[in-house]
Write a structure and sequence with these properties.
The complex is a heterodimer of chains A (186) and B (583).
Chain A (H helix, E strand, L loop, with lengths): L26 E10 L4 H12 L5 E8 L4 E10 L1 H13 L3 E6 L6 E12 L2 H13 L3 E5 L3 E8 L1 H11 L4 E6 L3 E4 L3
Antiparallel strand pairs in A: 1-3, 1-4, 2-3, 5-7, 5-8, 5-9, 6-7
Chain B lengths: L2 E4 H11 L4 E5 L5 H8 L5 E4 L3 H15 L3 E5 L3 H5 L1 H9 L4 E7 L15 H5 L5 E4 L3 H16 L5 E7 H5 L1 E4 L17 H13 L3 E5 L1 H6 L1 H14 L3 E3 L14 E4 L6 H9 L2 E5 L5 H4 L10 E6 L13 E4 L2 H14 L6 H15 L15 H12 L4 E5 L3 H9 L8 E2 L10 H11 L4 E7 H6 L4 H6 L5 E6 L4 H10 L15 H7 L3 E5 L5 H10 L4 E6 L32 H4 L3
Helix pairs in contact in B: 1-2, 1-7, 3-5, 3-18, 9-14, 11-14, 12-15, 16-17, 16-23
Classes of the chains: A alpha+beta (186), B alpha/beta (583).
Bound molecules: flavin-adenine dinucleotide and thiamine diphosphate (TPP).
Chain lengths: 186, 583
């Protein structure tokens, strides 16, 4: 379990804030959901969001503990505080969901995403794309005479910023992994 | 002790180990091996229904009236899809069910095989959890887990989909053992929150208990504790449709049901209270109406085993996550240890106010003339049956609301109705399930003629098993509840809301070998009801009632609790455009 960097003892139950504020402000929250790696569990989580009309801004999932049959789903969602609390409570009801963590409120956390951008162009635009990629620490993972594929990791807003810069320079394709997140420290 | 056996045998063995005595089902190709095992044993009684929807509602009736999970066995494809309405019904009303479906063999899954349906996919959103078992060695473990999940925490229906090759193959049977499941919802409430509620109880000037189906789910002990708490504090108590019987209707503090068709005094008390104590209810929209106007002056406490029920609709000041029985026990302990205090003087004033509301006598009606009023029919049914060992089921519509208003429930688990989904066709099969569990009791299904027709094929089941269920049909030849809304909302344009070409219910009963009784004269009603009670077998009672009677009180859509419509007032234009989009 310790490899998962999820605090011991924080059950899905105690993660709820039963006294939330009921403001109308839309907040963005990153949730880490630890689930039993059984068939259909992702469909349950996604079905919950679509069935109840919640937003999914990004979702990633992968097995994190093979022997324990555990997968970790990282969901970035948005809603009013009441909706966010309801989302967490609804996730907690799913039988193969063991833990629900709201990384946005449970202390500082780090978020990273990996993206690949294909930029097509020649001349000055191509040179400028390469120069900006360097500033953003994006790597070139493929190139032809007319295209580059850049690979970049970072927080989602850094990737958004890079995408904005590449667009006028001939951005043709984007692939993003969605957010992976962990709490900082112990 | 572990043993080798076929999957099909394991299923029967697991049901026996789980203490199952009755299952409701319908065979088909994908469950034949299981039916072969059912044939070769005597511990479990199988009830052959006439439609799989009936099997699920019967299992719901069985479950609600016994507190045990209901068990269903149906085949793949159409057998499973016919069960979907019942599963959804059980999910919304928190009824524990274990539904077993056959599936095409594992090697054919995904090939559009004969009678293949993606049963776990279809039922994922309408079960608490479901499983597809692909390996016989896992089957027994999954079945035991299925019972555990269905009955723990907030109860609900679960489904186990079992491919035919898994039924034939031999594997190791895991006996039932104390659950090692990771699914263990907490039942004890937080003591700090409980103490906060005790303090609120000590100081409340205008308190009210708002109780619900969660008290019934928690078991008879919870109802007992609730009664003790209500008597000791002398607080008034109301309940949702799903919670009727948790506190006795004859109890002095009983305000009657609340909500859209609830009693005037109950809704007024909810609106004006300063402390609302929700015990196992979920702030359904039939209760709250427009949430902005819901009980504006109260501190709200909520005891619920499901954290998602808390703050879902109404903002809660004192949230307590836990099982009703456990929480009430702790609550009583703390309250007693602090000297059993309440604000008696303020309570006195509050009761005076409540008694003024009571004096409005919102359920009064006049039986004049030669046409039976539905309210009169139910009052007579109540008078003539209340001393029996009685269980009541209902269908859905006006008759359901009148039954909730005019029948008195003295104990939990005596009232079976489809609340959350509002499934017409629920009541008749449910009455069969109840009667299977309580062979000597009086089981009555209060029905509307339209709802009753939706699962009338179950007459065959009632006859086959000698189940003396009484089908008390309030026949208004209308889809009454729909007609009422059309009157209030759609300018009395009664689009498709009448029952035409109805059968002759007496002949219909006779065609099945049952007894039929028709009654249209109020003066004959008592005798006719007595005749129904005296008959030892299924009865269809066709009670011809007033066709255009409306169900009151009613909180019109878009209005607050203190804005109720009472009987005998004009109903034109009472729902505005904003209210009319609500259901
Ligand atoms: C035509 C029609 C009209 C209706 N009109 C009305 C009306 O006027 N008034 C009315 O009341 N209803 C009415 N209903 C029913 C309504 O739709 C809801 O089904 C009902 O109000 C819900 O009841 P409940 O709040 O008790 O919740 P339930 O659905 O019974 O839910 C129980 C709650 O208790 C919790 N719980 C379960 N087990 C436990 C436990 N062991 N410990 C603690 N908590 C637990 C659950 O998590 C849940 O939150 C009507 C239905 C129909 C079809
Ligand atoms: C399966 C289903 N279909 C439609 C409805 C909508 N509906 C609610 S009440 C009602 C009319 C019920 O008529 P009846 O059974 O005769 O009862 P009454 O209201 O006349 O007492 C209808 C159609 C429903 N609740 N369930």
């Amino acid at each position: 379990m310790s490899a998962l960097k999820i605090k011991k003892g924080s059950t899905s139950h105690s993660a709820y804030n039963l006294r939330p504020n009921f403001s109308d402000v839309i907040e963005r929250h990153t949730l880490a959901v630890l689930v039993e790696n059984e068939p259909g569990v992702l469909a349950r989580v996604i079905g919950l969001f679509s069935g109840r009309g919640y937003n999914i801004d990004s979702l990633t999932v992968a097995e994190v503990d093979h022997t324990g049959h555990l997968s970790r789903i990282t969901i970035v969602t948005s809603g009013t505080p009441q909706v966010i609390e309801q989302i967490k409570a609804q996730l907690g009801r799913i039988v193969p969901v063991y833990e629900v963590h709201d990384l946005t409120v449970e202390g500082p956390s780090v978020e990273r995403e990996l993206a690949m951008f294909k930029v097509t162009g020649t001349g000055d635009k191509r040179v400028e794309a390469l120069r900006l990629a360097d500033i953003f620490r994006a790597n070139v993972v493929d190139s032809t005479l007319e295209t580059f594929v850049f690979e970049i990791t970072g927080a989602p807003d850094k990737i958004d910023a890079f995408a904005d810069l590449m667009r006028p320079l001939g951005l043709t394709d984007v692939a993003r992994t969605g957010v992976a997140a962990l709490p900082r420290g112990n | 002790m572990t043993r080798k056996m076929t999957g099909a045998k394991m299923i029967v063995q697991a049901l026996i180990d789980q203490g199952v005595d009755t299952i409701f089902g319908y065979p088909g190709g994908a469950v034949l091996p299981i039916y072969d095992e059912v044939f070769q044993q005597n511990s479990i009684k199988h009830v052959l229904v006439r439609h799989e929807q009936g099997a699920v509602h019967a299992a719901e009736g069985y479950a609600r009236s016994t507190g045990k999970p209901g068990v269903v066995l149906v085949t793949s494809g159409p057998g499973a899809t016919n069960a979907v309405t019942g599963l959804t019904d059980a999910l919304l009303d928190s009824i524990p069910l274990v539904v077993l479906t056959g599936q095409v063999p594992t090697f054919m899954i995904g090939s559009d095989a004969f009678q293949e349906a993606d049963t776990v996919g279809i039922t994922r959103p309408c079960t608490k959890h479901n499983w597809l078992v692909k390996d016989t060695d896992n089957l027994a473990g999954v079945l035991h887990e299925a019972f555990h999940v269905a009955t723990s925490g907030r109860p609900g229906p679960v489904l186990v989909d079992i491919p035919k090759d898994v039924q034939f193959a031999t594997g190791t049977y895991e006996p039932k053992k104390p659950s090692t499941s990771r699914y263990q919802p907490p039942v004890k409430g937080d003591m700090e929150e409980i103490t906060e509620l005790v303090a609120a109880i000590e100081n409340a000037k205008r308190p009210v208990f708002y109780t619900g189906g969660g008290v019934i789910n928690s078991g008879p002990g919870a109802s007992q504790l609730l009664r003790e708490l209500v008597e000791a504090t002398n607080f008034p108590i109301t309940s949702t449709l799903m919670g009727l019987g948790a506190y006795p209707a004859s109890g002095g503090n009983w305000l009657g049901m609340l909500g859209m068709h609830g009693l005037y005094e109950a809704n007024m008390a909810m609106h004006d209270c300063d402390l609302m104590i929700n015990v196992g209810a979920r702030f359904d929209d039939r209760i709250t109406g427009v949430v902005d106007m819901f009980s504006p002056k109260s501190t709200k406490a909520h005891i619920d085993i499901d954290p998602s029920s808390i703050n879902k609709i109404i903002r809660i000041d004192i949230p307590i996550v836990g099982d009703v029985g456990h929480v009430l026990e702790d609550l009583l302990k703390v309250w007693k240890s602090r000297g059993r205090k309440t604000n008696a003087e303020a309570l006195d004033k509050w009761w005076k106010k409540i008694n003024e509301w009571r004096s409005v006598d919102c359920l009064k009606f006049e039986q004049k003339g030669k046409v039976i009023k539905p309210q009169y029919a139910l009052s007579r049914l109540e008078a003539l049956t209340k001393d029996h060992d009685r269980y009541i089921c209902t269908e859905v519509g006006q008759h359901q609301m009148w039954a909730a208003q005019y029948l008195g429930f003295e104990d939990p688990n005596r009232w079976m109705t489809s609340g959350g989904l509002g499934t017409m066709g629920y009541g008749f099969p449910a009455s069969i399930g109840v009667q299977m569990a309580h062979r000597d009791a009086l089981v009555i299904n209060v029905a509307g003629e339209a709802s009753w027709l939706m699962n009338m094929q179950e007459m065959g089941t009632a006859m086959q098993y000698g189940l003396p269920v009484k089908q008390f049909i309030l026949n208004n030849e209308r889809l009454g509840m729909v007609r009422q809304w059309q009157e209030l909302l759609h300018g009395e344009r009664y689009s498709q809301s009448w029952s035409e070409s109805l059968p002759d219910f007496v002949k219909l009963a006779e065609a099945f070998g049952a007894k039929g009784i028709i009654c249209s004269d109020p003066d004959d009603l008592d005798e006719a009801i007595k005749e129904m009670l005296a008959y030892d077998g299924p009865v269809i009672f066709d009670c011809l009632v007033e066709k255009h009677e409306n169900c009151f009180p009613m909180i019109p859509s878009g209005k607050a609790h203190n804005d109720m419509l009472l009987a005998g007032v004009g109903t034109q234009g009472v729902i505005d455009a904003k209210g009319s989009v609500l259901v």
